[in-house]
Sequence to fold (602 residues):
Amino acid sequence: MSAPLSTPSNIAVASNRVRAATRRRPRASVVLALLMLVVTGLMIVIVPFTPIYSPYGLDLAHSLMPPFTSWTHPLGTDSLGRDMLSRLAVAGRTSILIAVPALLINMAVGIILGLVAGYFGGLANTMIMGLADLQLSFPIIILLVMIVAVVGPGAKTLVIVLGVTYWVRYARLARVMALSLREREFVLAARTFGGSSFWILRKHIFPQLLSSLAIVGSFDLGVIIILEASLSYLGLGIQPPTPSWGRMIFEGQDYTSRDIWLVVLPSVAIFLVVASAQILSQRFTGEREAQTSVRTV
Amino acid sequence: MIVYLLGRLARGVLTVLGVVTIAFAILRLNGSPAVAMIPTATVSQIAALNHALGFDGSLPSQYWRYLGGLVHLDVGKSLQNPAASALSVVFGRLGATLELTLCSLGLGLGLGFLIALVLQITGSQRLRNTMIWVGVTRQAMPTFLFGVLLVLIFSVKLGWLPSIGRGGWRHLLLPTLTLASFEVTLYMRLIDAALSEQRELDYVRTARAKGLRGGTVLLRHMLPNALLPVLTIAGLNFGALLGGAVIVENVFNWPGVGQLLIQSVEMRDYPVVQATLLVVSVMFVTVNIVIDLLYAALDPRVRLR
Fold:
């Protein structure tokens, strides 16, 4: 059973009809996803250079301002009068700065373990895949919570903790790839010419992985952002005063009867980023399947 | 069969052992917690607390005592509530968590089935695409976010349902919906894909050829075959469900194990944190063993060896 639960590979199991539909789906979804990414990306990049930028400036006289009523605070202010747009932008930057390194760590760990398991087999394979099975199905958030509790919350902790959580799918990908390529002629040829195991893995097997990495990676970026937001929401992620989308939602919940925007705005931000990453991932899946089906027929 | 069962049990015990070992290592990442727990403590107080928590002596001897305690189902007393053992504190919260997770699983599976059956009966590709996109949208939202939005709509704006706490079915509704909405998406796609796969097989054509009605073929012939993969995924997904429950319980102030875990972490009540992990991992292993056995009972082609 590879990668259960809401992963792009679910699509791979889906029927031909579903697959055909995925292929035929108009590019509107991709345009929409890119648009969503660009909007949030621009917000994160541009807002810090505008005069309204002030994520930490308290202004109790103008607290809980609704959005779209003032030029100095386009998206309103929170309970301490801090500018919402600035805070959303900083939170987004923090989120990306945590999710991307975490994703890269996951990929590196997963690919190395997977290649080792697939290429060398034997005991290494049994142990690594056993660990992978466990990690895939165990409620990992419980262990994450424990680590954060012991080490103390913070950006660095988050990167490391999230970085060792989602390596399993990369390990599986790399392992399957190594298994299937191990006996192929070009690998055997390379070995005949005296290529070392490491060299063969790096030069012949790793490059074959790249397209799969794009699919799983863009999906997982969304998943990691979700997990970061969840931990921050629980108070175990980014610590105040640094804003994070998850914590902004938590803090906004106290004011929902007066000002619903404090919750809605960060929610929209999370949704835009995660949804666009997942739509793009699905799109890649569809295209790759179209290619492979043509190739195999 | 007996051999298989013993082997499976041994693997289960190994899994639990692995998890508690990881927990042991995590708890010692930062040295002893005693100083952080009582910043003003004297040397003798720290030594006493270290002893109570099992943080004194060499690492192997700590580990040995830790395992010995686990075998006797003793992970120490709760630090917040010294009268109670940590395990009993966790068991006191287990009912609420089981209520929430089982209701969500039931609702998710049930709705997933219904939708998949409707998709198969109508055969509408448009409906299928719509449902998939609804599912993708839900999965692009963190669980806590979906819960908060439900509270905003049904508690704050409409005032129909209570937003926090545990009580009658009205309290149960929103948290269950939050968890189940994720499950529905998963099972709907899974069952639909499994049924579509079965549809192409020879036995379905035979059944139709001998004149059975579409509904009979679907329910009596295809569904049992499509159910088996669902069972496996449901077992694997049980962990994700528990993880989701940790978050949902904190959103809705639901007095379950997940809320206890976060509270204990904040209070540095390590015995309770360990007890939670032990209970969850044993539960998780048991569920998966039961599912393996169920699998063999339901499918005569599977022989357990």
